[in-house]
Structure formats: structure tokens, C-alpha cells
Design goal:
359 residues, alpha/beta, 5-stranded parallel β-sheet, 18% strand, elongated
């Protein structure tokens, strides 16, 4: 087991992107000096635009390193907020947080209006309580406040490493790739896997009144996952509900979320939902205990929920998770006394494949 205090192989290093105003470069130098123990242990590699070599495409290099970062550090000051280039990087960082679960950490260098910036104020802020480094340094050695930042960032790194290292069990991986009756359907392949034949189905999207709104492809749903924190997906028998669940699970794991698939047609979801999620996590993932995982990354995927008894209670219990995917046979099957419960979900219905997609 690789821990913060131990060594780590090159490919498992976390990539940290430093976004800052060049006017604040001296602060970046101090920050990078304090990162030395984490770099020495092989946990991270940091990047900022001074790494660009003469002759390289400046903007492409920045964009590439930003898009491939595991953690993005925004160094906030009036200079940062006044820079269009910095604010563009901030907007991209928030977008990556939504789409890929990238950790965004705001480090407050000096007093400024950062609390009025929605994307910044809702990310993790360091030093503790967002007290500016410049003001703190007036009363104490600046090393003290940079050490506070170091410890806060180390906690983030520890969480990210645990999530990145999570491995799906072999048994569940086989389930995710199983095509059931089609597994022997190709004359030139010993076994057909789901990734060989999967086609994204089209979905109908419904508004809060469950009135038809528009059609969208289900791959767009995964791409814009953060915009739909609670999804209810309906589909008739043999419409591909479970297959879509498998694909969503696989793609969300690539985005560094922790999907947990639940299916219980036999016992109709009797008992506590949290116990089912905990047991499913143990069956689906290796090594890291669930209690050590950031719960904000967990995405319960509840298949065939229309068979459940006490549906309203289960939905209330699931509210502790920011992201949820509920799969049913009909968008009208959940009628609760508390309408707010079901109105918090965006409703979709799996459409039948047209002839081209079926072919």
C-alpha cells in the first residue's frame, strides 16, 4: 500500500498546475520550495508557465498542462483577478472540476475581492479560513503560513491518490464488459465485449412537470454529468437500461468519480440503502476502505429501482450524495408526497434505436 510517507512510481504522480499572475511570481517561488518534500517522495510534479522552453507554442503548452492536471492551484490576488489570462484559466479549472472531478485549490495571496468570485469561493481555500498570506506574514515568519498551505494541500493530495489508485475488482470488471447473449456472436472473436459493440442510445429529456423537452445523446449526458447531479433514467424492458448503467459506471470512473452500481430485483431493496451501497463498494473496488474516500465523489447508480419498496425513504436516504442515478421502467413511477424529492431529479427516457443505430 502506497502512503504519503512512502515512495510512488512515476506514472502515479499527481500533476499540479499552478495558475498565477506573473506579478506574484515571488510567492510562487516560495510555494514551490515548500513543495519539495512531496516532490522528493515522488508524490507530485508541479508545472507553471516558466517551464516553457523557447520555441514551444506558449498557449498550447499551457492549455495541455491545464487539461491534464490532477490538481489546479489558483493563486488569488488583485493581480490575478485583474488578469484576463488568469481568469480564463480559472474558468477552465472550474469546468474541469465539473467534467472530470479535478481538484481545484484557491490559495489567497493578498486581500482582494475573491469572495465575490463564485468559482473561487466554492473551491477549497488556503490558508485556513482564507486568511491572506501577505497579512499573515506581517505577524509571523512567512514559513509558518506556507506550511499551513503545505498541510492543506497534502490532505488534498492524499485523497486524490487514494481515489486515483482505486481499482475495480476483476469480477466486477467482467460484469461491466459482459454482453450476455452476444458474447459469442462474432465469427472472428472468441468473446465479444461491451466495449466492442456499445452504441450510445438516444434519450428524451423531460422538464420538472415531466413534459417532453428535447432529445439528447446519452454520451452528452455523461460529458455534462456535473450539470445533472440527480438523474432519473427510464426505459422499457430490454431497452438497454443495465447496459447504459455499465457504460456510465465505466466513464465516470475514468473521470475520477466513484460510481457504485446497485441492483436488487430479488429482495426489492429491503433494509438500509447505505448498507447496500457499502456492501456493493466492497464487491466492486479493491484496497481502499470506503470511509477513507471523499463521499462527494461517490455516485450511486440504482438499477431497476421501480422494484423497490419504501421508495420515498430510499430517495431521502440517498440525499447525502450529491450525485445520484436512479433507473426505472417509467418516468411516472415515482409519485411521492414530497414532490420536491422527485423534482430535484432531471428526467430522461431511453428511446428505441432507430434502424441506423440498430444496424
Amino acid at each position: 500500500v502506497i502512503k504519503l510517507g512512502g515512495s510512488i512510481v512515476e506514472k502515479e504522480k499527481l500533476k499540479i498546475f499552478i495558475s498565477y499572475s506573473h506579478i506574484d511570481e515571488n510567492d510562487i517561488k516560495d510555494f514551490r520550495k515548500h513543495l519539495a518534500p512531496l516532490k522528493t517522495k515522488g508524490l507530485i510534479e508541479d508545472w507553471y508557465d516558466r517551464e516553457i522552453i523557447a520555441g514551444q507554442d506558449f498557449q498550447d503548452k499551457i492549455d495541455n498542462n491545464l487539461d491534464n492536471a490532477d490538481i489546479i492551484c489558483l493563486f488569488i490576488s488583485a493581480n490575478f483577478l485583474d488578469s484576463e489570462a488568469c481568469m480564463k484559466e480559472k474558468r477552465r479549472a472550474i469546468e474541469l472540476k465539473k467534467k472530470k472531478g479535478v481538484a481545484v485549490v484557491s490559495i489567497i495571496l493578498s486581500a482582494c475581492g475573491w469572495k465575490d468570485e463564485k468559482g473561487i469561493s466554492k473551491s477549497l481555500v488556503l490558508p485556513t479560513d482564507g486568511n491572506p498570506i501577505s497579512e499573515f506574514s506581517e505577524f509571523k515568519d512567512s514559513n509558518s503560513v506556507w506550511h499551513n498551505v503545505y498541510n492543506g494541500l497534502k490532505d488534498v493530495i492524499n485523497k486524490e491518490i487514494k481515489i486515483k489508485r482505486l481499482k475495480v475488482t476483476e469480477q466486477f470488471s467482467n460484469f461491466l464488459q459482459d454482453t450476455e447473449l452476444l458474447s459469442r456472436a462474432h465469427s472472428q472473436k472468441d468473446e465479444v465485449l461491451l466495449e466492442d459493440i456499445f452504441i450510445y442510445p438516444e434519450l428524451s429529456k423531460f422538464n420538472d412537470l415531466r413534459e417532453y423537452e428535447k432529445k439528447i445523446k446519452s454520451d452528452i449526458l455523461i460529458e455534462d454529468f456535473y450539470d445533472y447531479p440527480k438523474m432519473l433514467i427510464a426505459g422499457e424492458s430490454q431497452s438497454g437500461k443495465t447496459t447504459l448503467c455499465k457504460k456510465i459506471f465505466t466513464e465516470l470512473r475514468k473521470k475520477n468519480f466513484i460510481p457504485i452500481y446497485i441492483f436488487d430485483k430479488t429482495y426489492k431493496y429491503q433494509g438500509k440503502m447505505e448498507n447496500r451501497i457499502s456492501n456493493a463498494y466492497k464487491d466492486q473496488y479493491e484496497t481502499t476502505p470506503m470511509e477513507e474516500i471523499d463521499s462527494q465523489r461517490i455516485v450511486p447508480i440504482i438499477d431497476d429501482f421501480h422494484f423497490a419498496e419504501n421508495k420515498e425513504k430510499h430517495i431521502k436516504d440517498l440525499s447525502v450524495y450529491r450525485h445520484q442515478i436512479i433507473v426505472v421502467d417509467d418516468i411516472f413511477c415515482l409519485n411521492f408526497r414530497d414532490e420536491n424529492l422527485i423534482n430535484s431529479f432531471t428526467h430522461f427516457k431511453i428511446e428505441e434505436f432507430n434502424p441506423l443505430l440498430r444496424n
